[in-house]
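Practice record 12: protein with zinc ion.
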Amino acid sequence: MSRKNFTLLIQPCGFIEFNILKRLVEVLKDKFNVEADVSTENLTPPLTYYDWRRGQYLASRILDWIYGKVKFLNYDRILGLCGFDAYVEPLNFVFGLADPFKGIAAVFLPRLKPEFYGFRPNNEKYFERIVKECMHELGHTFGLEHCTNKKCVMSFSNSIVDVDYKSAAFCRNCSLKLRSAGVEIGSSAILFQ
Ligand SMILES: [Zn+2]
Ligand SMILES: [Zn+2]
């Protein structure tokens, strides 16, 4: 049996479709060669964390809150999947956020849905976007910064158009950085261009 890179806990927060979670675990296992579990408990953030004026949560606060809830489980990495929208000043919103020091990241799902932009629901497109943003934020937890290669999953996404343009894969440079951080990614996670 091959050695696993790290252990990962996927923590659902708010409503997340079960089939999305199930597929995501399999894809991330394959991309990162990781041992991944989904938390059996769905977490709901306290309403006092909600910014009623903006209709969003403050992403950094959510990250710390999830961390406080699950750090005792001692996973190497924690990935929050959040069924609500969030922001970080000075941005209007974020697709995700990571804290490399705590080894935690979160992805906020509403803006990854085609219907958010007035398109018809499309589960495949929605799932692809979730995979890319999860890979991107996990990359940050291993110290990767934004990449200038627009096809690389570590390139910064200003809008959903950028998310769709990039691949669910790390460029050669970013793959090498991951390797020096001790993460040997699967071949489906390497961008060959
Ligand atoms: Zn980023
Ligand atoms: Zn890159």
